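Task: sequence design from structure.
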């Protein structure tokens, strides 16, 4: 009987007009206002279902006014859908929410004029794009050319774009053409964490990655829709303009908890990192002894392996090879290097939310001795940021599978069952908690099992067990949500605190449970090159079936957070218990699609199960190499990877080993999660003066795992993201406990706007706003330099004036009319743009009689638009779309398109593009986005913003 999470069904939409669609309050319990979608029927029909779920969740938030809006470019996001708009009344307990603003705070668009025509620029297009690519750092983790100390950076995020004028990076008139005049004057840097400052202070002047670009465009005469306004704003036929879309801001180091952290974020970290013992082949946890930040003056190299792994390192950086640690400058192609195919998920600092209190323990056993023991071990009160919680989480997962918790002869007890080597790891972790477990003892077990269909089976074997006799630890595990007694007879669920925890904590719970219960990676019987489904099952008495289904649905939901999909869940025959009751077995089959299995094994994996951990590492490496082979054969045969994927490997023109053959050739002996890989290429890359980073570990092996490589000591996202992360965690900890706010999605964590926490976030957000204004202004400075260099004229003579800088991903305090009454509202625009009709005070004086300029980017293939705020904009709290909106994930886009092919095709159409990576280029392929003309038609027809000019691209720098 298949089951899963309740399928979300598209709501019945009420048609308000051809471009306005309404979801009534009755659709979902708790909705305080209806939701409205501004889009054509074509766009509405193609929207992903999660948009409807998210925008109706937004309608549940306290203090929301009129409607929860989604614009025509809407697609699923974090908390709000991207394209989401909502306004909240602080006087009605209205809230502020990071999930309604976005982590890319004040991400925006800037349009710059020139007095050049396409005829002037075309002969210089390639050097222009090349120089822009060189002078404006792009890509994840890129570092800006503006060198600031942390204290100087703090001044920047208070002063905003005024700092640029004072320091020669801006013309004074630029401020008059920027929203807020380039400065959110309520910024307070004291409300920003030191970690956010650390992540942001070196990134002024960077383009970023994803859908961030710098584009040279042309005004074609047929694309001028409002000739009077276009002329007034300085636009004319065949004119060349520049538009850019950016945000403020590499080796990932694997930590003790199976999560990764960027090496440059490790300066004040107490995390241990993974280290490889070259003699025993164990992967150990070790402390960091020293952190180094060094200005890089050496050559930089990009190393690629045959399985597709990449790392950038200095020439004196050591890597573990078959001949020991070797420096990069000593490398040759085909040298074998040690890699760990497991990747993990990004580490984030947990909140200080309390999970278990003294009262919780006393409800179970009102015993001073138990409470005092837990306090002594630093386990009470138990908070999310307790350094011992990760160990408790792993143990909880394993205990839910192969363990028992309960009373034995009136005394609390807990035991773990498994293989000897795995139980020893558990005993080590019990010791780290301040407790002890018995030595592992082995028992011979023999039992007769009768299935519900009458068939019988004898089970004869050995069982290994370790027991924890202390009263306090089993009681703590029970308080954390461990199942009590016979799990087939008792009801239990995934603990609520797990469901609300950071992703890396969820990963520990799942990995512990999977170490006990998930099947190992196994090759299909009839296909030696492909893996079968991973399976997970539980037994339940028939009357506990619904509880079993609920638990598995929760597991499935957690898997979905890692991008892992379940193929099916069903019921199979169970057994008869000794007292004659019947059980049923409920089983999840995890899809055997290779990308799905890779996510399962690389992001979650196993804890306390050495053989499955090792085997999944080999399986990951095998699948990575298979993927590379598909790429090679695609080039030889002119077939896509999707076409080739259905051909069995034994019939391929390129020979490929079976999994067992591959494993024997590349594994270490004794086995370990580390496996040999081969260097495919070593390429020197430009040294752009970045810092390089290193850590020294407290281990005689002096190595750590970075970007999957086992690397020796030495090694070379951002400000708004960290602000959002910090306050999201804070809001989760106070939202319900302090303010009684209950929400439908933790991604919508919020606080009352007028609360101390809400005001602190508003001020910290303003710092992010200011950094973003400065970042775009510095990029404009670089653009002016490049054009001056290429055309040998001053930027002023070339007419490099701004039209406007408009942003999205911001909350603004604005006055709007609601039901005939003027109110001061906090307006959230997540992937949405301000669109103010003529006369609004938010519009700079230069444009106040016209309406605000609105810049909307399309894909890099299709072009972009300049619009003006429309008369109907007040209906959406003066908001409109911000782009064309994605129709597919970046992962899917990289599967469907090849960056090299895309570049060649665009060149044939007269668009010269330069990108940091082929995969990054593929992510931004035109078909990955909605048709920008359809999006603009919706905004134009609705009257919230009106068309002025469309721009056609001729050159593009892609982050």
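Answer:
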């Amino acid at each position: 009987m298949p089951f899963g999470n309740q399928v979300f069904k598209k709501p019945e939409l009420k048609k308000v007009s051809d471009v306005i669609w309404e979801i009534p309050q009755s659709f979902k319990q708790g909705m305080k206002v209806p939701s409205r979608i501004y889009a054509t029927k074509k766009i509405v029909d193609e929207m992903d279902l999660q948009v409807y779920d998210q925008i109706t969740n937004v309608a549940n938030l306290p203090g929301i006014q009129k409607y929860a809006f989604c614009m025509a470019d809407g697609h699923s996001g974090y908390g709000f859908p991207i394209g989401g708009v909502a306004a909240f009344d602080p006087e009605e307990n209205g809230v502020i929410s990071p999930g309604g603003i976005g982590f890319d705070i004040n991400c925006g668009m800037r349009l710059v004029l020139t007095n050049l025509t396409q005829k002037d620029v075309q002969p210089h297009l390639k050097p222009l794009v090349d120089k822009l690519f060189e002078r404006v750092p792009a890509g994840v983790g890129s570092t800006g050319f503006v060198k600031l100390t942390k204290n100087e950076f703090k001044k920047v995020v208070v002063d905003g774009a005024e700092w640029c004028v004072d320091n020669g990076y801006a013309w004074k008139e630029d401020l008059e053409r920027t929203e807020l005049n380039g400065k959110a004057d309520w910024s307070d840097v004291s409300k920003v964490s030191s970690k956010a400052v650390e992540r942001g202070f070196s990134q002024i002047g960077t383009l970023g990655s994803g859908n961030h670009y710098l584009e040279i465009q042309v005004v074609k005469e047929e694309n001028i829709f409002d000739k009077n306004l276009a002329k007034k704003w300085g636009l004319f036929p065949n004119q060349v303009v520049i538009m850019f879309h950016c945000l403020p801001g590499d080796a990932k180091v694997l930590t003790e908890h199976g999560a990764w952290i960027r090496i440059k974020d490790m300066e004040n970290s107490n995390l241990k990192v993974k280290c490889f013992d070259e003699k025993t082949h164990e992967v150990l946890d070790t402390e960091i002894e020293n952190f180094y930040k060094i200005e890089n003056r050496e050559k930089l190299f990009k190393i690629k392996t045959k399985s597709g792994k990449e790392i950038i390192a200095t020439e004196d950086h050591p890597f573990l090879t078959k001949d020991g640690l070797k420096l990069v400058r000593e490398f040759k192609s085909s040298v074998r290097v040690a890699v760990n195919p497991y990747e993990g998920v990004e580490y984030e600092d947990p909140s200080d939310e309390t999970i278990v209190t003294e009262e919780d323990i006393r409800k179970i056993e009102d015993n001073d001795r138990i409470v005092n023991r837990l306090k002594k071990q630093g386990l009470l009160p138990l908070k999310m940021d307790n350094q011992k919680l990760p160990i408790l989480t792993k143990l909880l997962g394993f205990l839910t599978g192969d363990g028992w918790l309960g009373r034995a002869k009136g005394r609390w007890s807990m035991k773990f069952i498994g293989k000897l080597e795995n139980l020893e790891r558990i005993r080590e972790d019990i010791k780290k908690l301040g407790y002890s477990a018995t030595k592992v003892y082995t028992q011979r077990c023999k039992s007769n099992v009768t299935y519900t269909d009458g068939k019988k089976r004898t089970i004869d074997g050995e069982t290994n067990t370790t027991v924890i006799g202390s009263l306090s630890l089993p009681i703590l595990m029970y308080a954390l949500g461990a199942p009590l007694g016979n799990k087939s007879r008792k009801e239990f669920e995934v603990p609520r605190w797990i469901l609300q925890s950071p992703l890396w904590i969820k990963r520990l719970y799942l990995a512990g449970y999977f170490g006990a219960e998930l099947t190992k990676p196994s090759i299909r019987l009839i296909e030696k090159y492909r893996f079968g489904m991973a399976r997970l099952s539980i037994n339940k008495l028939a009357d506990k079936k619904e509880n079993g289904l609920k638990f598995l649905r929760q597991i499935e939901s957690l898997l979905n957070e890692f991008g892992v999909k379940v193929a099916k869940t069903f019921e199979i025959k169970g057994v008869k218990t000794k007292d004659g009751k019947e059980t049923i077995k409920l089983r999840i089959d995890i899809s055997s699609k290779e990308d799905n299995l890779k996510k399962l094994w690389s992001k979650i994996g196993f804890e306390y199960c050495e053989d499955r951990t090792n085997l999944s590492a080999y399986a990951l490496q095998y699948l990575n190499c298979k993927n590379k082979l598909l790429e090679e054969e695609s080039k030889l045969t002119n077939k896509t990877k999707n076409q080739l994927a259905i051909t069995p490997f034994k019939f391929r023109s390129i020979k490929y080993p079976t999994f067992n053959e591959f494993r024997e050739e590349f594994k270490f002996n004794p086995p370990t999660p580390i496996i040999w890989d081969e260097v495919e290429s070593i390429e020197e890359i430009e040294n752009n003066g970045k810092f390089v980073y290193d850590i020294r570990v407290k281990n005689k092996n002096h190595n750590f795992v970075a970007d999957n490589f086992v690397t020796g000591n030495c090694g070379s996202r951002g400000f708004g993201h960290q602000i959002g992360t910090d306050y999201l965690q804070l809001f989760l900890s106070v939202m319900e406990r302090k303010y009684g706010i209950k929400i439908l999605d933790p991604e919508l964590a919020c606080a009352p706007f007028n609360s101390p926490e809400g005001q602190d976030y508003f001020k910290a957000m303003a710092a992010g706003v200011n950094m973003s204004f400065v970042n775009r202004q510095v990029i404009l400075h670089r653009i002016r330099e490049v054009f001056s260099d290429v055309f040998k004229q001053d930027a002023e003579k070339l007419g490099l004036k701004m039209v406007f800088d408009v942003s999205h991903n911001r909350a603004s305090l604005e006055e709007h009319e609601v039901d005939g009454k003027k109110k001061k509202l906090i307006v959230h625009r997540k992937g949405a743009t301000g669109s103010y009709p003529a006369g609004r005070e938010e519009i700079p004086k230069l444009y106040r009689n016209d309406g605000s300029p609105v810049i909307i980017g399309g894909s890099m293939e299709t072009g972009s638009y300049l619009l003006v705020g429309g008369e109907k904009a007040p209906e959406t709290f003066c908001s409109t779309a911000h782009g064309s909106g994605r129709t597919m994930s970046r992962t899917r886009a990289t599967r469907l398109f090849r960056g090299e092919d895309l570049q060649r095709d665009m060149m044939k159409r007269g668009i010269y593009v330069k990108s940091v990576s082929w995969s990054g280029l593929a992510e931004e392929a035109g078909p990955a986005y909605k048709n920008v003309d359809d999006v603009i038609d919706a905004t134009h027809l609705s009257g919230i913003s009106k068309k002025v000019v469309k721009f056609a691209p001729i050159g593009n720098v892609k982050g």
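The CA atoms of residues 618 and 664 lie 10 Å apart.
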